[in-house]
Amino acid sequence: MALKKSQRSLRSWTKQKWRTKSGKKSSETGERYLPEKAIKSLSAAEYAATTRKKRKDTKKGKQHSKQPKRIAKKTRRARQFKFIGGRLNIAEIEKQSKELVEPLKGLDSYVLDDIRTAQESYKVFESTIKKEKENNALDKERWQELDVPTSPINSLEDWAKFRNVTTEELQRMKKESDLELYSQQRKRNDPDSKFGKNPELSQTPFTDTKIERLGRENMPKNVRTYVDFDLRKKLRSKNVLSPYGASGEFPRGDFVFPVGDKITEAHEVMHIGFNEVPGLTEHLNDKFGIGNHEHTYIIETTEPEFFNLDMPPPKGFTEEQRTEYIKSIAPNASDKRYRKKVVREVEKYIKKTI
Predict the structure, then answer these.
(1) Nearest residue to 259 via CA among 280, 232, 285
(2) How many Å apart are CA 273 and CA 215, to the nearest integer?
(3) Domain check: are 70 and 173 in the same one?
(4) Confidence (pTM)
């Protein structure tokens, strides 16, 4: 959406008829709350699936439940917001967000983006709440479903309350930020590691693959590591921090991984390497059918035991999560012969094209 740098149209949900499929309150039935057009676009099985996801998340105590990706994509158009009069000064919001996030600036940009989005969302809420009250149409469930704060975000504590982040968790976030800033300072003082190990990245590749070497030759500037894995796990479930590992997923291109975790580091480096090989993804899809062959290759070359269900799941995964993750990669990802074929095909393609 093209907008002037300093302005953005306020969003309005007043013309959307949000409801459950049964017409009853979501708090009574546990059904997914969606615009009428979105409900009509889903089959009975799809609506049942997104409702199951909501009930499961509600049972875990989550205020906001994301839809399954496939269903979210299908309903996106129906959930898009219409624009009405009014202007929001984005430059001012950006300035306020940076000031609020100062104690956490060592963390990945996910935090800054979330705080800024929360502030914008509150402005939208503030602009429409008066009209809803006047029309006796105030619907708290709808605002909760949209993950919108209903009180101002004027401090880190306000944001933490909105995201259900405890005071103790916020203090741990600040500690993580300080550690990362110290690490960055060491890197600036010793960029070539002449006087010690570079605190951000391993000095040697984890694998002997060309893909990892290509990734290391094209690393983004914004490398961030973290120490408190348990905190990351807790806050990831609250949509506060990025995943355990990430390579350029966010608006500022963060490269994120646990400090000292060479497997996750190599995993994310190899994603960058894949991007440096033109046509590789398309070639693998032509060869093996549509699937996440990139992840098949990366996991098989960095952590092949991940696919062995007789072994304990790696840190950050439950047995159920690992099984579902393997299924999501490719229909035959559990087949060792398929995985070996993918590895050979990737190496063959790179040798031919690079």
Answers:
(1) 232
(2) 4
(3) no
(4) 0.66
